[in-house]
Automatic annotation (TrEMBL):
InterPro entries: Spore_coat_CotF-like. Keywords: Capsid protein, Virion. Residues 1-11 have a biased composition (Polar residues). This is Spore coat protein. Pfam families: Coat_F (PF07875). Residues 1-20 are annotated as: Disordered.
Amino acid sequence: MNQSKIQNQETMIPKTPQMNDRDLINDMLATEKYLTASYSTALNEASHEQLYRDLSAVFNETQDCQRHLYNLMFQKGWYSLDAAQDQKLQQSYQQFSGYTNQFPYNTNMKQ
């Protein structure tokens, strides 16, 4: 099976022992992903309302930064995606749409 890639043309970077732009942005992206996961845990465990709101604001800023870095790497061709096949999408939809009867609230999925 031939899977098609979704990717921009790759921005060339020097191949040297020193960290280049791609390495630096990738390092920042990894850090932002770690921070968003950590803030998510802190939000789940915050017992004080103002602390929760403050953490939520910082979480949102961190998440936006993470998304910006991902988009930058994708634009520069340093990230690629595999195009999903229609059959796999339909299988996933059928698998997860069966779970709706387990939701605690009436949240009917629209087809």
